[in-house]
Design goal:
The protein has one domain: Up-down Bundle (Growth Hormone, Chain: A). The chain is mainly alpha-helical. It contains 19 helices and no strands.
Length: about 400
């Protein structure tokens, strides 16, 4: 992705940021997060030896992460955006240091810092994209950005687990720190915030409660949030409980890392899904994809722990379709948000990530008290069907 990039192109990108700049930054950020995305749940499971305990810890830390995410607009109003972005990368680095302690308190702190860092980077990068990319070019730009992250999310999870099991517990976290430092270096090289002609004027400070109220009264923003939430629920389940399924059924940690890596390989289809979305329309494509994901989840749930490899195969089928949502879902928000509310509404919108870790983890902790791991996939299928119906009925056909 960033290799073999000629120096003159980088100079031009620094002057006038394009989709390529955002793709490069997103790709490096993805590698920093992907390389430990399978390691963290496996490490947590090794420490706790309980699927339910993992769910409870994720729930608690995600709640704290949600609070921190809602506070990010206040940081953006008071601190230059480039420093907010920098703080997000720093949080990823400190989170890796906490994970490297290999203790439950360190695990909790690492989960919080990772959530805050990912949220900060996501919100600030989204604001830069909305500043520089025209609405008519969003679908193509997003498909390019997701395709650029393919290498990271395909190789990262497996490499991380390999380092964790074969080299040493600290190795994947050191690798993630290196990529976070590279991200910071590239970000400051591109100098995205230095062109005053691209500033939208001062933002009006608003407290998180007022931001939430303003978000909720806008139906198109509510629907965009639901789409993103359901999509992210699939990925959070896939990333956390896919590896746990492999470990708990005796397939091994490397099998868990390989499962996540294979699922992310489908990011290569981002360009294809972008074209399908433009031809078929977002309403038909998004609603249809949710139905197909639900079917795959039902298959995974029926297979469950009794047939773990079949369940893994069905989760991979669901991952293929979920890539379509990665490519298209954010367009529904970007086209709906008002320019003068971008920072505040983006922060509220971004809470779908926190809720997609809080709600499933809480629900799964209850389900796992009575049923085996396959039951959580059946429950998630219900959410997919519910979202498909809402998208078909309420998403404007003109998008």
């Amino acid at each position: 992705m960033i290799n073999q990039v000629r120096h003159p192109i980088w100079i031009d990108a620094a002057k006038r940021p394009t989709a390529r700049v955002f793709a490069i930054l997103f790709g490096i950020e993805s590698m920093a997060r992907a390389i430990i995305t399978s390691v963290v749940p496996i490490q947590t499971y090794d420490l706790m030896q309980s699927e339910r305990g993992v769910s409870i810890l994720y729930t608690c830390m995600s709640l704290l992460g949600l609070i921190s995410t809602l506070s990010i607009p206040m940081l953006i109003v008071r601190i230059p955006r480039r420093w907010v972005y920098t703080s997000g990368a720093a949080a990823l680095i400190l989170g890796c240091c906490a994970f490297a302690l290999d203790t439950l308190p360190g695990q909790a702190l690492g989960l919080f810092l990772r959530t805050f860092g990912a949220g900060t980077l996501s919100i600030t990068l989204s604001l830069y994209i909305m500043d520089h990319i025209k609405k008519g070019e969003l679908v193509r730009a997003e498909s390019v950005r997701m395709a650029t992250a393919t290498l990271a999310w395909t190789g990262g999870p497996f490499v991380g687990v390999f380092l964790y099991t074969k080299v040493g517990m600290i190795a994947p976290f050191l690798a993630s720190i290196c990529f976070s430092l590279l991200l910071l270096g590239l970000f400051w090289y591109f100098r995205l915030s230095d062109n005053p002609a691209l500033q939208k004027g001062p933002s009006r400070p608003a407290n998180p409660i007022a931001n939430i109220r303003r978000f909720v009264v806008q139906p198109r923003l509510r629907l965009a949030w639901l789409i993103a939430f359901a999509r992210s629920c699939y990925w959070s389940t896939f990333f956390v409980y896919g590896p746990i399924l492999m470990v708990a059924t005796g397939q091994g940690s490397l099998a868990g890392g390989l499962l996540v890596s294979l699922g992310n390989l489908f990011l290569l289809a981002s360009i294809l899904w972008g074209k399908i979305g433009m031809i078929q329309g977002l309403t038909r494509t998004i609603s249809g994809v949710f139905v197909l994901i639900a079917a795959a989840l039902i298959g995974a749930g029926i297979a469950g722990a009794g047939f773990p490899m079949v369940a893994a195969l069905m989760l991979l089928v669901g991952a293929f379709f979920c890539v379509a949502l990665d490519t298209l879902a954010s367009t529904t928000f970007i086209r709906a948000v008002h320019p003068h509310e971008r920072a505040q509404m983006t922060a509220v919108y971004r809470t779908y990530l926190d809720f997609s870790e809080i709600v499933p983890a809480f629900v799964y902790s209850i389900i796992l008290s009575f049923f085996n791991i396959g039951a959580i996939f059946i429950a998630l299928a219900g959410l997919m069907v519910f979202t498909a119906v809402f998208v078909w009925r309420y998403l404007p056909r003109r998008l």
